Fold:
Amino acid sequence: MMLESSSFARFSRYFSSSVGTKLLVGITGLLLFVYMILHLAGNALIFAGPDIFNSYSQQLISNPLIIPIELGLLLVFVVHIYKTVRNFIANSAARPARYAKQTSAGHTTRKSLASSTMIVTGLLLLLFVVVHVQQFKFGSYYQTTDATVRDLYRTEIEVFQQPLWVVFYVIGTALVGLHLRHGIASGFQSLGLDHPLYTRRLTRWSIILAVIIAGGLGVIPIWVYLTH
Structure:
């Protein structure tokens, strides 16, 4: 019992340290990145029409594993936000005085708009996710001709026929892309996968994947608005 308690204490101390926090942020960030790929793939089925889209969403809803998966995803999301904010506060406290003048390190620097605004885009995305979940998970509930199947396709059409919501979601998905643009590479680097031979490739692929995910999600509300 004492051994288990001691092991847990060491485990807790490690993930409370700056190194452990960075590692945890990286792991949870990459898990959320994988989820975003799956989320895009599922949402893209809206282009296949209501029957296929509603069938897919119904399979998710009726899957007995969906609640444990959603709870696990929520835990990952909360840990990622908490550790990121805590790390930001700790870093700010360690450097109470701002630099008098910020200068670029030239071609060797990894500083970018995405890296400089991670905490801001992250907090804005928290608001975006809350609104998104409220609208589509707990929002208007319609049924298809089969009373056991939710007509989520109709819900999406209803939301995205309103131009303000289209603008809101396009901006939200752009923030997703900006956050991922730095977050993907940063996550791999947190796991120690950082080497001069392939860091540039990793950064390049991070940008490409961020554009694909953000662009794919952002085009859906525009397509719905223009075609329905």
In short: The chain has one domain: 18-90+112-227.
